Amino acid sequence: MRFYRSLGDIQALSFDLDDTLYDNMPVIIRAEKLLTAWLANRNPALSAFSTDEMKAFKLRAIAEDPARRFHVTESRRHQLRLAALATGMPGEAAAELADEAVAYFLAERSRVDVPRETFDTLEALGKAFPLVAITNGNVDIDAIGLSPYFDFAFKAGFDGAAKPAADMFAKTEAALGIPGSAILHIGDHLVSDVLGARKAGFRACWYNHEKNRQLKAQRVAVLPDVEIGEISALLTLL
């Protein structure tokens, strides 16, 4: 644990989800592979598109509606619809395929093994503080068993722009009725979480899960208030 400034009086906690409360990258890699195979089975012509071509469909989906930039689920849905249309599928069939593909992907990306340490830490913290989840991702918080631990949960797209934008931090303040200066946000990302929290007036705890990363080697615009290497360290900190 490393302090960069005094925390002051902390009255509530907000948490990032992906790669903070569980290891998300292996989950996404597996879900992407499964989705690719699922799509190839439903429409083999989709396999012909390169990574760059699929990226172009995503950019086009966002250009059609800029709000999708903050909504990973809807940008994927319309990316797949555009790709299906490009293979010659009729509009209704392309939309149906995209809806089914997104539902399949969301189910697979929510097959997350949340560590026992996370459950135990949240349970203990929840006895002393209101807890809020703030995520840019689209995990099903009910499916992974974390919803009972949070008083509120906010998702980018549904609840405003993605972090580091202030939207979800502002919603957290409003929902709790507590000023950001008394809320500690915990997250792994130095921009989305640390910079976002500090710009919104929150306190920021950087979860340095790799433990060998040093702030002096990172491009940081603002320092966190405190750095931890294990989620359970919050029990000592608070």
Question: If you had to describe this structure to a student in words, what would you say it looks like?
Answer:
This protein has 238 residues and is an alpha/beta fold. The protein has 2 domains: 145 residues, Rossmann fold; 84 residues, Four Helix Bundle (Hemerythrin (Met), subunit A). It has a 7-stranded mixed sheet, sandwiched between helices. Helix 7 links the parallel strand 5 and strand 6. Helix 1 packs antiparallel against helix 4, helix 2 packs across helix 3 and helix 3 crosses helix 4. It is elongated. 37% of the residues are buried. The mean pLDDT is 94.
Look at the helices and sheets and give the structural class: alpha/beta
- Helix proportion of residues, in percent? 40-55%
Q: At the third CATH level, what is the topology name of the largest domain? A: Rossmann fold
Which residues sit in consecutive blocks of at least 5 with pLDDT less than 50?
none
> What is the fourth-level CATH superfamily of the largest domain?
HAD superfamily/HAD-like
Map the helices and strands.
Layout: E1 2-3, E2 12-15, H1 25-42, H2 51-64, H3 72-86, H4 91-109, H5 116-126, E3 131-135, E4 152-155, H6 167-176, E5 183-187, H7 190-199, E6 203-207, E7 226-228, H8 233-237
Parallel strand pairs: 2-3, 2-5, 3-4, 5-6, 6-7
Antiparallel strand pairs: 1-7
Helix pairs in contact: 1-4, 2-3, 3-4
